[in-house]
Amino acid sequence: MGTIYDLIILGAGPAGLAAGLYGGRYRLNTLLIERSQDGGQIAITSDIENYPGQMVEAEESGATLIARMTKQVEKFGVHRVSAAIEKTELEGPVKRLIDSKGNVYEGKTVILATGAHPRPIGCRNEKDFLGKGISFCATCDANFYEDMEVYVVGGGDSAIEEAIYLTKFARKVTVIHRRDQLRAAQSIQEKAFRNEKLHFMWDSVVDEVSGDGILDRMVVRNVKTGQLTEVLADPDDGMFGLFGFIGYLPNTGLLEDSGLAMENGYIRTDEDMHTNIEGVFAAGDVRVKSLRQVVTAAADGAIAACQAEHYVADMQ
Q1: Which portions of this protein are annotated as coiled-coil regions (predicted)?
Q2: What confidence tier does 107 reach under pLDDT thresholds 50, 70, 90?
Q3: Catalytic residue selected from 6, 38, 123, 141
Q4: Could you read off the pLDDT of 162-199 as tens digits, one per residue?
């Protein structure tokens, strides 16, 4: 018979790593499963300025922050496996996770920290400029575009609220929207239209981005006329920012038939990270929540691990 872990954590982003740290410190026999690199979205962020306790003497990047988190998890003896989980069996006292090779991992509790990813802008060469001009988080990256030009793709509440936020830093913010009117709430629209720094490109989508290592050019297409507009960075800036806010996609595809309560693909939890299945918790961007940041993900992970420890203790 194989090992039945006290706790299995799926996903090694900030939520999963924080859960691993706390699980290890609670002396739970903990297994952390990640299919690729640690860190999730934050791993591709070149600079971080808003995480409490980060390094200030030297530049902090997503990679450096995650590397330290990973080391902390290792210190407390958490077991690690690199595997792509394809099936879950979460009901009952022993939960089972099965990977693409047929390996089965069993645990008394599971913390789902699979995260979410921004819906791509959908332009050519997009992946080449992630973290090099293209961003999906104004709160994270606005400071890096101080007194520069910035473009925002989207027209809903989040896009316009983030565009307004970006005007605190950028000298000019242009919203690129595929329709001829915004989808944001009227109150948000009114605030946006009063902002002198905000400009709009209607009926438009970004077709292509390019640059020599950093984003300094894009092609915008009018969806009604087909007209192409080339946008170039100001020579004095050398680059511009392009922010995508057209929604997030939770990484919950493998959980569709798990019995978990969902909302728009996100996992529903209470404030203590309990799902509707006993012994199963969710943490970080994968759950229904109002703010998706490293600091909130880490807090979720800590709470989930604490609740898992209580659950295991009550089983004995």
Answers
A1: none
A2: very high
A3: 141
A4: 999 999 999 999 999 999 999 999 999 999 999 999 99
CATH class in words for 4-118+248-315:
alpha beta
Q: Angle at Cα 23 formed by Cα 18 and Cα 28, nearest 5°?
A: 165
Which residue reads 């090694």 in tokens? 12
Q: Is 141 a catalytic residue?
A: yes
Superfamily for domain range 126-244: FAD/NAD(P)-binding domain (3.50.50.60)
pLDDT tens digits, one per residue of 147-163: 999 999 999 988 999 99
Distance of alpha carbon 146 from alpha carbon 4, whole angstroms: 51
Closest by Cα among 33, 37, 88 to 254: 88
Cα 181 to Cα 21, 121, 175: the distances in Å are 47, 19, 11
Q: How far apart are CA 225 and CA 259, in angstroms?
A: 47
For residues 170 and 197, the answer to whether their CB atoms sit within 8 Å is yes
What angle is formed at CA 265 by the lines to CA 264 and CA 267, rounded to 5 degrees? 105
Task: Tell me if 115 sits within 8 A of 252, measured CB to CB.
Answer: no
Structure confidence by residue, pLDDT tens digits, 249-299: 999 999 989 999 999 999 999 999 999 999 999 999 999 998 888 899 999
Gap between the Cα atoms of 298 and 245, Å rounded: 23
Q: Any residues with CB less than 8 A from the CB of 197 and at least 6 apart, and which?
A: 167, 170, 171, 172, 173
Whether 203 is catalytic: no
Domain residue extents for the chain: 4-118+248-315, 126-244
pLDDT value of position 52: 81
306 is catalytic: no
Q: Which of 6, 38, 123, 137 is catalytic?
A: 137
